[in-house]
Amino acid sequence: MRKFLRYFFVLIALIVAAIVLIPIIFQDEIFEMVRTESKNHIKGEVAIGDMSLSLFSDFPNLTLSVQDVSITGEEVFEGMKLIDAGEISVEIDLFSAFGGNNISIESIRIANSDLYVLVMPDGTANYDIMKETGEVEEEEAPAEASAPYSLSLKDFSLDHVNLVYDDRQGGMYVNITDLVHDLSGDFSADVVDMATHTEIQEMTVSLGSTDYLRRTNVEADMDMKYTASAQKIELGDNSIRLNGMKLNATGDVVMGDVMQLNLKLDAPSTEFAEVLSLIPEVYYNDFDDIQTSGSFAFDAFVKGTMDESESLPAFGLNLKVNNASFKYPDLPAGAENLNVEVHVTKPQGTADATVVDIPKLSGLLAGQPVEARLKVDHPISDPNIDMYAKANLDLAKVAAMVPQEGLSYSGMLRTDIAVKGKMSDFEAQNVNAVEASGNVQLSKFKAETTSFGLPFELDTMNMDWRPQRVNVSALSGKLGESDFSGSGTLDNIMSYVMTDTTLRGRFALNSSLLNLDQLAAAAPAGEDAPEEETAESTGAVRIPTNLDMDLSTKVDRVLYDGMTIEDLRGKVILVDGVAALEGVTMKTLDGTIGMNGSYDSRQLQPEVLFDMSLSSLDIGKALQHLDMFKAYAPIAQSAVGKLNSNFSLNAFLGSDMTPDLSTLNASGLLRTIGVKVEPEVLQKVATTLNNESYSRLLIGGSEIDFAIENGRLNVQPFDVTLGGKKATVSGSSGLDQSIDYTMTTKLPINGIKVPQEVAALGLTGDIDVNIRFTGTATQPKISTNFGDITSGLQTQVQNAIQDEINNQRDNAINAVNEEAEKIMEQARAEAQKVKDEAKVQADRIRSEARSAAQRLRDEAKKQGDELIARAGSNPIAKTAAERAARELREEADEKANKLVSEADTRANRLESEAAARADDIIAKAEERAKIEN
């Protein structure tokens, strides 16, 4: 007996040792295998924080747990996380794992995770993460060696998971916050009795521009029976709650290549409060305390088959609200006599057969009557609309019906519009086939919200509806200190509202004050945005891609980044997320700025591409307010005077809407007018030369040819005056504040400090001096070089004698040179005028060509979109239309590029001819002047 007990305890000890040692022995090997296989098969960056393997947590099950797992995309999805999981754990029946043929997974749990699925407009998806692999030939195992293999799962759970599904190709958006889900059942059996429990804190579902669910709280318990052999799911006892509305579902679904659906949905209760709860603002504001009356009826069904074709099963939905009312006990107003009737029907077939009919929508809002109706058929191919809406509302009374957290508004809204006709007739402006009449007026409107730090006021907005377009005859208001007024037209508002197309229009907008600093400070910071949306919340202005607007703007005064801009004028064209600026001019910094170019907000970092002209700008103020000058010319911080410039600029913008200087590329010509500079670095020059007059620099009428590339400013040689003597400067400076400039000049030897061996010669006259500036703008280094004096004293003596002879000769011809200089000055001015006029003409040729090229591209895009729209949902027709649209765009791009290229050639030729004429003018003047050197 004692021997038996001894063996028994030894066996127990071995089992315990195995339980402890097996995970320890194999954990690192399994962890490395997971890392390696992830790297080999998944595109992008896969990060795994930690992994554990245990038999203790749920013996005899083997628990594999992985923490902090993330998959970050690459290429167009670089920096975007597809998944960021706090924990993923799998429990496997240990004995089934050793058996090999039937692995039983007890549970899979995913907790504290974020999942962001993005499908781009071209169909590229961030979940396409598997690397492509070549086919692997496998040896066929002998028939007798094959054995059945199965995998069973008993429980699957999601614990506090957030999900965003953003399908920009299909126009579908789903946002699920704090999902808790549990699915249980023995999936190894042929007939599986499944039980599910789901809780969602908030769910938003949108198709196109329509929200079908918004911030809806969901709870569902579903019992289902799944028959594997028949691929059939039958619904048993179940309940679904959407906010306060409870639903029951019955029916079955047969899976397969052709899916068969037979589902019914109805509401077991008929209290109006349940329907009311679907409005988030109502549900999340003391919903249990609302006083309600009235009833409703609801039912829906889906029946038919669904496969890969465009045919969809039949479905229907009916909702009817009868004589309902609601009122918050602490608020003065409520809603009464609410009557709503909604019918949605579609037979088996395409979605284009859907009919949405809302024959009745009426009631009293705070005692004010409203009524409307809507019917839409053929919503896909060519929506046929019959719509009517009438209301006359004091919005302050409406606001008093529901508690508004962080929002208040007031004003008068009057609407009385009727629209009837096919969308194609509206688009074609076939006025004989459509009806559109009425007016929408909003006056004395004021709104304030805690999410935006400024009040919005709309004094008046008057919209007249006509078959051809909607005329906005009056528009005026304020946003903080900024005011606006204007008028214009909206060409296709019906198709924009009903089919989510691009809104086209033209407006003239005026403002006496636009305070951009105040607007930027009031905008929400976006810190609560999901990580993948951070780029959209950085403060950069995003231009909607579904706008095609032509705006003529006049702004009397703009406040921006400490600058005051006056008389802002020009045209702004908004197309496909890009703002094109044409002929924009403004007065600021004691001068004038002109610009043509574009602002592209479609990228994560907006991009600007401008041709700029600066006229008579105060150089000191320009260096103070314009980051480009401040960063690249720190040595000129003390400059006074004026500057003119023409240059091209390309850069990406940062979150503060200013250029990211590390991405800046620019080139052009800068002209100085009476500029004087006394930087600290020149004081070092004066000290080195022992002459205070060399502590200031005059840049009178110099032309500075500059270029900025790869974070460095390079300037070609230009003339300055140092201590009354002509000097030439060239070199570069960088964003890192490093400087590398050389100044070459002739200075009087008796007026500067020179080496002792040079002073011992007793020479007179001017001497060649090279001054090198290196180091940084804040800690510059100065070095001087006095030519070959120190290495050739005899030559210097001879040069001194020759200099004296030259001085005598120079005195004799000074009078001639003075007159010659006048001739040359006049010739240089005339030559510059020729080049400037040519530059203006050349810039105009380039600008007009680019505008014409953009119009070609826009028209091709428009025609392509129309082809795709007419193709509807027919996949063959749609594929052909997409190919035709692509060919239209490619042909337009080819024509546009050719147009721009020809314009550039003409412009370059014009400038070259002007330069030749200017050189000829200078040459003839030099011949007349005969200036001695």
UniProtKB/TrEMBL annotation:
The chain crosses the membrane at residues 7-26. It comes from the Bacteria. Keywords: Coiled coil, Membrane, Transmembrane, Transmembrane helix. The lineage of its organism: Bacteria, Pseudomonadati, Bacteroidota, Flavobacteriia, Flavobacteriales. GO terms for biological process: regulation of protein targeting to membrane. InterPro entries: AsmA-related (IPR052894). The keyword Cell membrane does not apply. Residues 802-905 form a coiled coil. GO terms for cellular component: plasma membrane. This is Uncharacterized protein. The keyword Transmembrane helix applies.
